Amino acid sequence: MLATPAEVDALEQLQSIDIENIHTSKKLEELPQRQALLEVRQKLAAIVKKKTQVQDMLDTAEDELHGLMAEDERLAAKQQETQEALERVQGDYRSVESYTKDLHGVAKRREKLAEDMERVDQQIERVKPLMDQIMDGCANLEAREKDLIASFQQEGGALQRTIAENNARHQALQDKVNPELYRAYQRACKECGGIGVAQMVDGACSACRSVFDASKIARIKQDAPVSKCPSCRRLLIVSDQAKES
Ligand SMILES: [Zn+2]
């Protein structure tokens, strides 16, 4: 394949830049923050779900408590009124009996309400520490998420800049290589896992390590400075020394 020494040089530089970008992209893909963020976000979603459940529990208990307290307030007022009425009807046996019965009923109901309020109150007191724990957990996870994002942006940003710089260098080198050679390079990269260029070293391919016999070496030398490895199909650079030996 026809290539000037400058084109061969550019081809080798292209290969080294592209390999660096393959490694850099892999690093970016495998940044540990990515997995850690995923895990933190799963935990956050779970804890937020738990928080909603506990909040619902608290809301229900507080509604119940308010209902009980409102009823108790009404009954306290009624108790007061009945007590006053009772004092006014002293001597009227029937009325006294009726009011006393009412008072007794109200007192009994208030006793039951006091028990219920105590029970709901205790329930709320039991749930509150759990809610505090959940809020702490949420805050910790959110802080961790924030740190991970910052660290990911810092490390990932640097890697992305390297990739962009290498892409620009690739573009500049592409302009230094004739289109046919560049297409052959692209094809070889695609077919050979990103490494499309090898050198012939001591009659062998530096990439796939195939050792060539005399007739193959002769054919390769005819194509110099750029041939193709008969084994792995990579572009095979034949140095001047290899040509002469
Ligand atoms: Zn090879």
Please tell me about this protein's structure.
- This protein has two domains: 5-9 and 178-244, no CATH class; 31-174, Helix Hairpins (Orthogonal Bundle).
- The chain starts with a helix and ends with a helix.
- The protein has helices at residues 5-29, 32-88, 93-174, 179-191, 214-223, 240-244; strands at 197-201, 204-205, 226-228, 235-237.
- It has six helices and four strands.
- It has a four-stranded mixed sheet.
- It is mainly alpha-helical and 245 residues long.
- The protein is rod-shaped.
- Zinc ion is lined by residues 198, 205, 207-208, 210, 229, 231-232, 234.
Kindly state the percentage of residues in helix.
over 70%
Number of helices: 6
- Count of DSSP E strands? 4
Report, as a whole number of angstroms, the end-to-end distance.
19 Å
What attributes characterize this protein structure?
single chain, 245 residues, mainly alpha, Helix Hairpins, 2 domains, four-stranded mixed beta sheet, 6 helices, 4 strands, 78% helix, rod-shaped, binds zinc ion
